[in-house]
Each structure stands twice: as C-alpha cells, then as structure tokens.
Amino acid sequence: MKFTRPRKVLAEKLLELGIEKPRLAFNPPSGDILNRIAYGISKELLCVEKGEDFKSGKVVDTEGSLRLLSFTGNEKPDALISKRGKPLNLELPKYPKIAVDFTLSGLLENHELKSLFVQTSMAFSVVRNFFTPENFVLIGNNQVSNEFLKKYSIKTAILENVEPDSVIVLDPQGEKEFSHEEVSHDTVIVIGGIVDKSQRLEGITAKIFPDSRHRKITLNGETEIVPDRINEIAKIVCEYLTSESTLEEVVVKNLTRDSKLRWLRSALQRNLIRIICGNRKLKVIPLSLWNEWKEKYGLNEFLLKKSSGHVGGICVVKDSLLEKVKGKVKKGKRELHHSHSSHIRHSSTCCRCRFFFRNFSYRSFCC
Fold it and tell me: What percent of the chain has pLDDT over 70?
C-alpha cells in the first residue's frame, strides 16, 4: 500500500479549519519542516491558535495551498503554531518501520563501522522527514548498536523477537522486485548494515532473516546502478511508498554520481568494441548506445570521461562509421575489428583526436 505523509495530513487538517497561513512562534526545525511540525502536533508537543494579530512572516514551506510562515516577512498569518495553548487533535496514519540491521556488524572493520554510523544517522533523518522518528528502528542489540545510539544521541528502538512474516529484507540478490503491494503499516523493511567497499561480504545479506521475504530494487532489471548507501536506499523506499511514482521513476530521480559511475564503468567494459585502424587500436561505443544511456540514466560527458579511464580510454563514434568496419580477428579472448574506412582513419589521426592517444582521455568522434 501507499502512505500519506504527515505533512499532507496536517495541511488537510488545517485547511479544513480555514487556516491557510500558519506562522511558527519559533525558528523552523531542521529537515522537512512541515513533517516535523505535524509530528509535534500529533504528540501534543505543539499547539495551533487561530487569529490575525500575529507578527508577519515569510513562507518557509508549502503543501498544496497551505503556506507555512516564519522569521520576518510581509505575509500576514491567520494562525500561530507554538508550544503553548490548546492541543489540536491530529491523528497520523500508521507507517511501516524502516530498520537497519546491526546483527552482522561484528564482521566490519573499524573504518567500515564509522561509515555505517554516518549512513545510519543520515537514514534516521530521512525516515523522520518522510514518516516519523518512531518509524526508524535498529535490529541487533549488541555493543555496536548501543555504541551508535550513545554516540549520536538518537532515541530509537532496538527491535527484538521480530516476526519473520512481517519482515521484508532489501537484498540485491532478492528473488522478486520490491513492491508497495507487499507493504502494510505492520511491515518492517530491513536494510542490511553491510558497509563493504571491497565486496568481501558480497551475498551475506541472505543471512539476515533467511526465512523472511528478500526483495531487490532494480532499474531496468539491473541492481548495480541503484545507490547502495543505507541512507540513499532509505530515501528511495520512503519516497516510493509516499508518492504516486513507480519504483523505477524514484530510483532514476535519486541516482547519485557514484552509482552512475559504478554502473557506467561496468557497462563500458561489457559494450566496448575494439577496432584496429591502421596501426592504432581504438576502444569505441556507438553513438546511439551512448544516447540511449544518457536518456535512461541521466548521464553526461563528464561521467563518461571519468569512467573512460577504467577501460584505458573510450571513443564515441557515429553508427554510420561503425558500419564501415569489416572483418575481425581474435587475439586471446578479445575480438579486434578491422577498419578500412578513410573516415575513421582520418578521425583517429586528426589533430584534435590525437589527444586521445597521448593521454587516454575521452573524445567524441563526430568527423
């Protein structure tokens, strides 16, 4: 199922009461302002008072036609949100829990534990901005999880004795695609606390709740391009569960430079074509393929240049030039294509393209 964010629930409630421009009596909190305010009102920590004799302010957040004011400005408020007054009866929906699993944290090295702590603290902020602080939990009551809570002063629960039927583990090797149709307010969505840049622990997520559902997040059937940091995964899940967008649309929106580079390096290695042109060897990809990647994943020439070094340099050539390549010979495990085209030969020896051969830098051939 999909869920309505607290900020939207609050906006609908205030608009029903005829309040369109509430003003904060204090500086706005960090993160998603309206979401934080909605949670405070639901817990009766904040109150709402209608009136017109309040100080003007400027818009700091909006939701639909609701405009939240704060600081000094020219907008006249019609209500005041403060820590004193009569509480507003605001009931928020129940949301699923987003959990970070610490049960395998003993396998991590010291520098990986530091990264785990940073990513987990950022994931807490993400969940708080989409749902409530209570919807972020840890799994694994051990020395590492308690050290994390002490270091970051985060008040969150450590779940124990979790029912396997209520758990969905996000696993790159999961059997099926993650879907909101399997999620209810009783669901615990588990992100493995595996921070392993060397990939020595690859596949170990299968040991987390082995009897529960393991689901993967993909883009066009691929998991490699999906961001892999804990906070980034949490953001994709929360945004997907609270929007009308499909999972792939949310993944595309939240692609990071690192995830694009990781995927592009691998894609170049899989798709490059080796060409013998005169006495030179070129590594190329078709222009049509590059344009397809750009459209699908939001890539740019900067990322291509960064990734090209991973394969020793790459050229993007027009498809019409590749059609002139004839014959091929196998050298070891590699296939080398022979080019007799004067167009490619000219492109490979002209002054502006010679830079590629000296420095193994990216060059797009359009000759």
Answer: 87
Residue pair 80/48 in contact (Cβ under 8 Å)? The answer is yes
Rg, Å, the chain Cα set: 27
d(CA 25, CA 6): 20
Task: Tell me the residue type at 365.
Answer: F
Q: Stretch 287-301: mean pLDDT, rounded? A: 93
> Tens of pLDDT along 131-164?
999 999 999 999 999 999 999 989 899 998 899 9
The DSSP letter of residue 166 is G
Name the 3-class secondary structure at 342.
helix
Yes or no: say if 52 and 58 are a contact pair by the CB < 8 Å rule: no
Buried b or exposed e, range 199-212, using 16+ CB within 10 angstroms: eebeeebeebbeeb
d(CA 266, CA 284): 14
* In contact, 114 and 148? CB cutoff 8 Å: no
Q: Which residues pair with 358 in a beta bridge?
A: none
Q: CA 172: distance to chain centroid? A: 14
Spatial contact of 362 and 313, defined as CB atoms under 8 Å apart: yes
Instruction: Look up the pTM and report it.
Output: 0.87
DSSP state at residue 172: T
What are the residues facing 315 on neighbouring strands?
284, 363
Percent of the chain's residues with pLDDT above 90: 71
User: Could you tell me whether strands 334-339 and 47-50 are parallel, antiparallel, or unpaired per DSSP bridges?
Assistant: unpaired
Dihedral sign, CA of 13, 17, 20, 23?
negative
CA 14/CA 49 separation, integer angstroms: 11
Sequential DSSP letters for 47-105: EEEE-S-S--EEEEEEETTEEEEEEEEEEPPSEEEESSSPBP---PPP--EEEEE-TTG
Nearest to 81 by CA among 153, 25, 1, 21: 25
Query: Residue 214's beta-bridge partner residues?
Result: 169
